[in-house]
From TrEMBL:
PANTHER family, per the entry: APOSPORY-ASSOCIATED PROTEIN C-RELATED (PTHR11122), GLUCOSE-6-PHOSPHATE 1-EPIMERASE (PTHR11122:SF13)
Protein name in the entry: Putative glucose-6-phosphate 1-epimerase
Keywords: Isomerase
Reactions this protein catalyses: alpha-D-glucose 6-phosphate = beta-D-glucose 6-phosphate
Homology family: Belongs to the glucose-6-phosphate 1-epimerase family.
Length: 291
């Protein structure tokens, strides 16, 4: 996206401004420590760049800003299910309009929180009452926390993911560790597989790692940096790269853009989380850069 096309709607503070891009409202953060953008459509972080660093989060150059679909890249919020467990795929949170609930800043960084609650449209898809709050804590690091609260009179269960797209220099020159060895291979209809401690890429990769460590490392050798991904409240880590053939089939991805991205996702897969009335659960991911 061309940030020069952002039109300012309302300056909320020195660092936080409400903008608009192709009809989508975006919270823009410009702070001495960090620049970032968060779409109210989907509660979706679009970019995150700490001072002195290259972009950490990948956003497709062909991303479509359409209020009926999720933006390709950033951190889509998959909720209240992951994948094709029901329709729509990955749930409705990533295509719902979230509300800005609070923003705070000081010399150490910026915190922005958005909320999403059930309405008639969501209840037609998923017949439960809920309150979701997603909080973005941004400075040299990024922490994203999605807290789901059952505001219904009956228990319900949910899954989902913080579907983070990472910006890398070259998919052929990265390695990932900390994801564990056991995974379900979605390119083989969910077949249970055993891998090695180090993951490299030479084909389409779509895996649900079922016993990840709390810290996953992306060694981005060409960018001379390591991206650390610390997940909490999850029970799986999804790692995805579509490779070229699938990229070509996607209208919102350039044909070779698979070379500069990889997804490492904090995921609630199986079993899903059951919440009693009044109960809450938080799924989070913390992202930092090491040199």
């Amino acid at each position: 996206m061309d940030l020069r096309q952002l039109s300012t709607i309302n300056a909320l503070s020195d660092a936080v401004t409400v903008c608009e891009y192709q009809g989508v409202k975006i919270i823009r953060i410009i702070h001495p420590m960090v620049e970032a953008g968060i779409s109210l459509h989907g509660g979706h972080l679009l970019w995150f760049k700490p001072e002195g660093e290259k972009e950490v989060i990948w956003l497709s150059e062909n991303a479509e800003f359409d209020l009926k679909k999720a933006v390709r890249g950033g951190i889509p919020v998959c909720w209240p299910w992951f994948g094709k467990a029901a329709a729509p795929s990955h749930g409705f949170a990533r295509t719902s309009e979230w509300s800005l609930s609070q923003h705070r800043e000081n010399e150490n960084g910026v915190i922005v929180s958005l909320t999403l609650e059930d309405n008639q449209e969501t209840r037609d898809i998923w017949p439960h009452k809920f309150h979701n709050q997603i909080t973005f804590e941004m400075n040299a690091e990024l922490k994203v926390s999605l807290t789901s609260t059952n505001t219904d009179t009956q228990p319900w269960s949910y899954g989902g993911a913080l579907h983070t797209y990472f910006n890398i220099a070259n998919i052929n020159n990265i390695s990932i560790t900390g994801m564990g060895r056991e995974y379900l291979d979605s390119t083989q209809a969910g077949k249970e597989c055993q891998g090695s401690d180090v993951l490299t890429f030479n084909a389409e990769t779509d895996r649900v790692y079922t016993h990840p460590q709390s810290m996953i490392l992306i060694e981005d050798q060409s960018n001379q940096r390591t991206i650390t991904v610390a997940n909490d409240g999850d029970n799986a880590a999804v790692i995805w790269n579509p490779w070229q053939q699938l990229s070509i089939s996607m209208g919102d991805m350039a044909n070779n853009s698979f070379e500069t991205m990889v997804c490492v996702e904090s995921t609630i897969h199986t079993p899903t989380i059951e919440l009693q009335p009044g109960q809450a659960h938080t799924l989070s991911t913390r992202i930092a850069i090491q040199h």
